Amino acid sequence: MNDLIIFVLLFAATGAGWWLGRRRAQPAALPMPGQYYKGLNYLLDDRPDGAVDAFINALEVNTETLETHIALGNLLRRRGEVDRAIRIHQNLLARPSLPRPHVHQAHLELARDYISAGLFDRAERLLLDLVKDAPEQRRAGQRHLLEIFQSQREWSSAIEVATALLPRRSLLGSVNTEVLSESRQPIEVVLAHYHCELAAELLQAGDIAEARGQLQLALSRDRNCVRASIMLGQLEYQAGDYRQALKVLRKVRQQDADYIPETLPTLRESYRQLDDGPAMRRYLEDCLQAHPSAPLVLALADDIREQAGDDAAAEFLSEQLSHNPSLSGLAGLISLQIGHVEGRVKDNLAVLERLVQGLIAERPTYRCGHCGFAGRQLHWFCPGCKHWGTVKGLFGNHVG
Ligand SMILES: [Zn+2]
C-alpha cells in the first residue's frame, strides 16, 4: 500500500482543517464528520480515489484552507499521482467565490499538473491565459511555457518567451541577475542555443541567409556561444566564403578552447581551399602549445605527413606521445608504421592496432561538466541534466 503515507497526510490535513475551523468558530467551514470517516474507510480499504473525493468534500475550499488543498495537490503530483493532483486543483477552480489571486495560483498548479502528465496543449492554453491576465504569476507562467516550447522543439515560441524573460536594466544601470531558466543557467546562454536550434532547422530547409541571421543573434545574446561560431564557420564554408569561415572558427579558441577540436575539420578544409598551408600549420602549432589535445596532435601529424612524409609524421607523433600520451595518437603512430614493415612485425602491429581501436571505441568521447553524462556524441543539450552547452570532448592530455 504505497499510497499510505500520502493519504495519512491527507487525513491529517483534513483533521487539521476541521480543528482550525472549529477553533475559529466558523461553523460554515466545518467539514462533515461523515465525509471524514468515509475517507478514512476508503483509505483503510486501499481505495485511494474514493479517499481523495471524500477529502475534497470534507475540507471546504476557502482562503483558510486553500494552501492545504494546493499543498496536497502538489504532494500528489510530486509522487506521480498526477490524475489525483489534477482533481484536487480542478476542484479549486470550480469555486467561483475564490479570490482572483487564488484562482491564478490554482491555475498555475493545474498547468504544472498537465505538464507532469504530458498534456502540453492544455498546460500551454492555461499558461498563456495566466501570462496575459495574472501579473503576479507572469514570470512563473513564462518559465513553464519555456519548458513546454523547449520540450516540443518550438524554437520560435521559445525565443519569444525567453526574450521576454531577459533581465532588464534598471534606470540606475544595474541588471537583475536572478533571471535564470528552469535549469538555473543564465537565460542568455539558453536563448543563444534556441537561436542555434532554429538556425539548424533553417539550414536543413536551405535558408542560408535566415540561418546566418539566427546564428548572429545567438552570438549577440551570448558572445561566448561556441556552438554558434562552429555552425557559422560551417555555414560560411558551405557558402564558399573561406576567409569568413576561418575568422569565425578561430574565435572559438577565445570563447572556449576545449572546443577547438570541433573546429578542426572545417578549419583545415578552409585553409586548403585558400591554399594557405603555412598559416594553418602556424595556427595548429599555436593551439597545440597553449591547449594540447589529441585531435590537434593528429591534425598536425596529418599535415606533416602531407608535407614531409610518413617518417617525419611518425617522429612528430612519437615525440608528442612521450609527453601527451593518447590512444588516438598511438593508433595514428601504428597506422603510419604499418605500411613500412613486412611479415611478423606487420602482423603484430595489426593486432596492436585492432586492440587500440577497440579500446578507443569503448571509451566515451564526450562528458557533461555538470552531471557527468558521458557518450560518444556531442550533445549541445545534455540528455542527463538538461543543461545547454555543458558537454565537452575528452580530448585533453592523457585521454582520447
Ligand atoms: Zn549534464
UniProtKB/TrEMBL annotation:
Annotated residues for binding of Fe cation: C368, C371, C382, C385
All residue ranges annotated as the LapB rubredoxin metal binding domain in the record: 366-392
InterPro entries: CellSynth/LPSAsmb/PSIAsmb (IPR051012), LapB (IPR030865), Rubredoxin_2 (IPR041166), TPR-like_helical_dom_sf (IPR011990), TPR_rpt (IPR019734)
GO molecular function: iron ion binding
UniProt-annotated location(s): Cell inner membrane
Alphabetical UniProt keywords: Cell inner membrane, Cell membrane, Iron, Membrane, Metal-binding, Repeat, TPR repeat, Transmembrane, Transmembrane helix
Gene Ontology cellular component list: cytoplasmic side of plasma membrane
Keyword ATP-binding: no
Main location: membrane
Record GO biological process: lipopolysaccharide metabolic process; regulation of lipid biosynthetic process
Cytoplasmic side: 22-400
Record membrane topology: Single-pass membrane protein
HAMAP family to which the protein is assigned, alphabetical: LPS_assembly_LapB (MF_00994)
The protein's role, per its UniProt record: Modulates cellular lipopolysaccharide (LPS) levels by regulating LpxC, which is involved in lipid A biosynthesis. May act by modulating the proteolytic activity of FtsH towards LpxC. May also coordinate assembly of proteins involved in LPS synthesis at the plasma membrane.
Family indicated by similarity: Belongs to the LapB family.
Name assigned to this protein: Lipopolysaccharide assembly protein B
Originating species: Kineobactrum sediminis
Source lineage: Bacteria, Pseudomonadati, Pseudomonadota, Gammaproteobacteria, Cellvibrionales
